[in-house]
Design goal:
CATH superfamily of the largest domain: Enolpyruvate transferase domain
Distance between the termini: 5 Å
Largest sheet: 5 strands, mixed
Helix content: 25-40%
Number of helices: 14
CATH architecture of the largest domain: Alpha-beta prism
CATH topology of the largest domain: UDP-n-acetylglucosamine1-carboxyvinyl-transferase, Chain
Bound molecules: ligand EPZ
Number of strands: 25
Length: 419
C-alpha cells in the first residue's frame, strides 16, 4: 500500500505551480464526444481520474493520444461505437456519469452504470435525469444501470435545478448543445469549471449564453466540430498549497492561478490572519499567527466544500475556537477522526465541526479516506511534531498531480513510499 511519510517541516518557502483543474478536464473530455474531429486539450493534470475518463471515452469510440509530457490530450471523436458506460469504470470514477449527456444527444441513447455513493455522500443523479427528461428523453432503471433514450433528437427544454448541481448543470448543458431548439437551465451552478466547459463547447460551435450565472441559455446547433482548449488552473489545488504555506508559517508564491477564482478561499485565509497578495496569475501567501474563524461551505462563489477538510486542519493550529459547517455533502468529516489521532481537538455535531485550536499536533499513522481528506492530513503532517504516515494515498493521487514533489520543492519533508 503506497504511503506518504511526512516529517514536521520548516516554514515552506519558494514557488509552486498549479496544474489544470481536475473538475474541469473531466467534463471537457466527456464533451469531446459531441464533436467530430480531433480536439486538442492542453494543461491536462495527468491524474488517475483523467486516465479513467480517457479509458471510458476510448471504450465509446474516441481515440486518445497523450503528448508533451502528459500535459496535452489529442481526442479524435466521430461515430460513437458503444453507448454503455460499464460498471467497472463508473465504479472507479463517478464523474463517468458525465458522458450521459453527450451520448444521449449524439446517438439518442445512453446506458450508464448507476454511480454508487462514495465516502462523502450518496451522490444522487436525479437532477441530471430531470434535465434529460425535460428534453424529451425516456429514462428507465434496472440491473444497476440507468438507460436514457430519445425518439430522434433531444428537444430543447426548460429546467429549474432544485440545487445548483455542478454535474447536472454540465451534463444538461452538453446535451442541450446539439438538441433541437432552445434550453434554459435555471438555478444553474456557476463554478469556474462550468464556464470553462461552456468556453470549450462554444469554441466547438455551441451557442451558449449565461455560463457563470444562474441562468444558462443554450440554442441547440446541428453539429459541433473539434476544437483546441486549455484547461483553467485548479483552484482547489491552489487553495491546498495556500493552506500548507499558512500552517507552516511560510512564504510561498502559488503560480498559474486565476485570483478571481480564489476569492472565497483568499478571503477566509485573510480572516484567519494569513497575509495574501495577488498578482495577475499568482498569489503570495505569508503565514502568521493563525486566528480561529468560522466557515460555512456553499456553492460558488461561497466557500468551496472541496477546501473544507484542508481548513479543518489549519484551524486545528489556530488560536481559539472555530466552527466549520459542511452544507454540501452529508458525510465529509471523515478526516476528523484521523486528525484527532494527531491530537486535534474537534467535536462533530451534525453538519458542524467545532475545533478547539492549539499550537500542537503530533505525528501519527493515519489514512486518507477520500481525496480532500487525504490532502488535509498532509497539511496537518507538515505542522505536526514528529513523523506522520499517511496510507491509502491513491485517493490523493486522484486529484493532485505529483503533490509530494511539488511540496518538496518548497521545503516540505514528504516522501512517497511506493507499494
Ligand atoms: C462536483 O461534484 C465536483 N466533482 C466535486 O469535487 C465538488 O465537491 C462538487 O461538484 C461541489 O462543488 C467534479 O466536478 C468531478 P454536485 P458533483 O452535483 O457534480 C446534490 C472533489 O473533491 N445532488 O454539485 O457531483 C449532491 O448530493 C470532488 O474534487 C443531488 O441531490 O457535485 C450534493 O449534496 C468531490 N442530485 C450536492 O448536490 C443530483 O442530481 C452537490 O453535488 C446531483 C447532486
Amino acid at each position: 500500500m503506497a504511503r506518504f511519510i511526512i516529517t514536521e517541516s520548516v516554514p515552506l518557502k519558494g514557488k509552486v505551480r498549479v496544474s489544470g483543474a481536475k473538475n474541469s478536464v473531466l467534463p471537457i473530455i466527456a464533451a469531446s464526444l459531441l464533436a467530430d474531429g480531433q480536439s486538442v486539450i492542453e494543461e491536462i493534470p495527468y491524474l488517475n481520474d483523467v486516465r479513467i475518463m480517457c479509458e471510458l471515452v476510448e471504450s465509446l469510440g474516441a481515440c486518445i493520444e497523450l503528448c508533451e509530457g502528459n500535459t496535452k490530450l489529442k481526442i479524435t471523436s466521430g461515430s460513437i461505437s458503444d453507448t454503455t458506460a460499464p460498471y467497472e469504470l463508473v465504479n472507479k470514477l463517478r464523474a463517468s456519469f458525465l458522458v450521459m449527456g453527450p451520448l444521449l444527444a449524439k446517438t439518442g441513447k445512453a446506458r450508464i452504470s448507476l454511480p454508487g455513493g462514495c465516502a462523502i455522500g450518496t451522490r444522487p443523479v436525479d437532477l441530471h435525469l430531470k434535465g434529460f427528461m425535460a428534453m424529451g428523453a425516456n429514462i428507465t432503471q434496472g440491473h444497476g444501470y440507468i438507460e436514457a433514450a430519445s425518439r430522434g433528437r433531444l428537444k430543447g427544454g426548460k429546467i429549474y435545478l432544485d440545487f445548483p448541481s455542478v454535474g447536472a448543470t454540465e451534463n444538461i448543458m452538453m446535451a442541450a448543445a446539439i438538441a433541437d431548439g432552445n434550453t434554459i437551465i435555471e438555478n444553474a451552478a456557476i463554478e469556474p469549471e462550468i464556464v470553462d466547459l461552456a468556453t470549450y463547447l462554444t469554441t466547438m460551435g455551441a451557442a451558449i449564453k449565461g455560463a457563470g450565472t444562474d441562468t444558462i441559455k443554450i440554442s441547440g446547433v446541428s453539429c459541433l466540430t473539434a476544437a483546441s482548449h486549455a484547461i483553467i488552473p485548479d483552484r482547489i489545488e491552489a487553495g491546498t498549497f495556500m493552506a500548507a504555506a499558512a500552517i507552516t508559517g511560510g512564504d510561498v508564491i502559488v503560480e498559474n492561478v486565476v485570483p478571481d477564482h480564489m476569492k472565497p478561499i483568499s478571503a477566509k485565509l485573510r480572516e484567519a490572519g494569513v497575509e495574501i497578495s495577488e498578482e495577475l496569475t499568482s498569489i503570495r501567501i505569508r503565514g502568521g499567527e493563525l486566528k480561529a474563524i468560522d466557515i460555512k461551505t456553499h456553492p460558488y462563489p461561497g466557500f468551496p466544500t472541496d477546501m473544507q477538510s484542508q481548513m479543518t486542519s489549519l484551524m486545528s493550529m489556530a488560536h481559539g475556537t472555530s466552527m466549520i459547517i459542511e452544507t454540501i455533502f452529508e458525510n465529509r468529516f471523515m478526516h476528523v477522526s484521523e486528525l484527532k489521532r494527531m491530537g486535534a481537538n474537534i467535536k462533530i455535531e451534525g453538519r458542524s465541526a467545532i475545533i478547539e485550536g492549539s499550537n500542537k499536533l503530533t505525528g501519527a499513522q493515519v489514512k486518507a479516506t477520500d481525496l480532500r481528506a487525504g490532502a488535509s492530513l498532509i497539511i496537518a503532517g507538515l505542522a505536526a511534531e514528529g513523523v506522520t504516515e499517511i496510507t491509502d494515498i491513491e485517493h490523493i493521487d486522484r486529484g493532485y498531480m505529483n503533490i509530494d514533489t511539488k511540496l518538496s520543492s518548497i521545503g516540505a519533508k514528504i516522501i512517497r513510499i511506493a507499494d
